[in-house]
Amino acid sequence: MIATLDAVHTQPAPPVGRPNPIEALKQTVSASRLNCWLTCRLKFFFRYVQQISKPKTASLHVGSVVHLILQAWNMGRWRKQPLELQRFKQVFDEGWADQPAKIDWQNEEAAQKSGGWSLLETYFKETPIPANEVPEAVEVPLEADLSKHGLPTLIGVLDLVRAGGRIVDFKTSAKTPNADDAMRLNEVQLSCYLVLYREATGKPETGRELHHLVKTKTPKVIITQLCPMNAIQRVRLMKMMESYSEGLAREDFVPSSGIRCAGCEFSQECRRWC
Fold this sequence. Notes:
disordered N terminus; 274 residues; Lambda Exonuclease, Chain A
């Protein structure tokens, strides 16, 4: 029986000439990979080790196009350019058209597109960020060498660093978040960003902000302001990354059955796992 289970757990050998994906994954860790690992290690295996691709969903496409425009808006402020709404609308239309052919819109593409642009219009009206505030950084890729802690290199891209060192992350959501849930659900990502910022600048952040663009019938903008990362949160993140490193070394890819399974894109693959 043990031999049989070992055979099931052992991944297929990588093709000749291609590196073992696990070895590459051991070298670096990102917030998205760490979140996936903590959610379900078998899902991590399907996504990052076997690299099974899945069609992009409608909600993911809406979120990515909204993010594209927010990036353009922030870059415009960083470059001190005029913030012309019509220019952003043109970029939005171009980004919307650049989509995979396999998205299943269920005859609602026009409504989804209109709703996405309404989200942005609402944000531009209600954002707490002054139009003349010059960002410290926009969409900046960073990495932090954590080898002194026995951990892989942390990598990531910060959405926005406001003047004075406030870290901002943008989210699209179908329902209104409350502050406690927002902090809990985004703890890993925010903590990763703060470690990256501190390692890059040699100074602590002054605060954290989650800007939720909520896709309700009447779009809303919810701003959640959080204090800088404390010592306990940093240790928690380090322990999570330690779990990632040790689990990868053991090839510990097991499922975590629960409520999130209902929306998992790898449900068919998971049912075949034993």
